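S1.2 Input.
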Amino acid sequence: MRLPWVFQGCSAFNQQTPQTVSERRYLMKKVLRTEWYDKTVKALQINGKGERTQQAYARAVRQLIEFSGKDPNLITEQELQDYFLHRRNVTEWSPNTLKICYCGIRFFFEHVIRRDWHIFDILRAQPEKRLPCVLSRSEVYSVPGSVRTSHNYAFLKTVYSCGLRLQEALHLQVSDIDSSRMMIHVHRGKGARDRFVPLPGETLILLRRYWASHRNPVLIFPALGRNMKGGPSADTPMAGDSVQGAFRQAKASAGIKKRRVSVHTLRHSYATHLLEAGVNLRVIQKYLGHAQLETTMIYLHLTQKGHEDAYSIINDVMKGF
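S1.3 Output.
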């Protein structure tokens, strides 16, 4: 069987041909990274894409090359079309996953491989119309109470009370806390946009108490290590996977049965609860870091308060009609 292009002439294969699927996959990823990864990332950086977007787009191209086993220069427009149809109809990727796949591969072929193909003009991923799940205030409060460790407790409380994304909270630094203005400076959020979000007084007290337990000079949520003592010298934040795992356990312990609930649900709940409390939608947009108001308007569908108020007003207006 002929080896894929990325393995031909590869020193790793000259030394030992991989025997198992896992070995082949490992070496393929290793060689792919050296063959095209640098060019792709450089083009993405020049284009101003954020780090998370760079990772997602690069992953989409890697999946294509692994699937085809061919030099990207040899992939035809028809083969690319077949690949997209396979991901849509066979593996049944979600619309959001397909959108990342389309955008990443399109960027790669247009700006790195330099292809001007008609297929890129007709690519569309049907947008998902599902509403995000939202927890009630009592459900939100029950989650941290079911967390077993202090670092996950402090983390989840901060995510909800400040409406942060998972990665934004993980990379919070000591210098981001402005206690005089009671604000948090969120650096390079989604879309590489900075913003300030209000810092509740109780959250500030919690963060100070938690930071005193490790006193890392830079990070608020440093990686603690297996012995839970690596916080003071860690130069990387704690792992997002471990936080998600702790959240799932806490959710189960709290008896929450709702579907599609994750750490990000706390951010949706934050926005919905602010809206129900009377905070202006434009202000919520600013706190969440949304570029478009339409993105924030989804929370109008997640609350009944406006409908209840409207019913009461309409009832009063129509009296005696």
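S1.4 Remarks. The longest strand covers residues 183-186.
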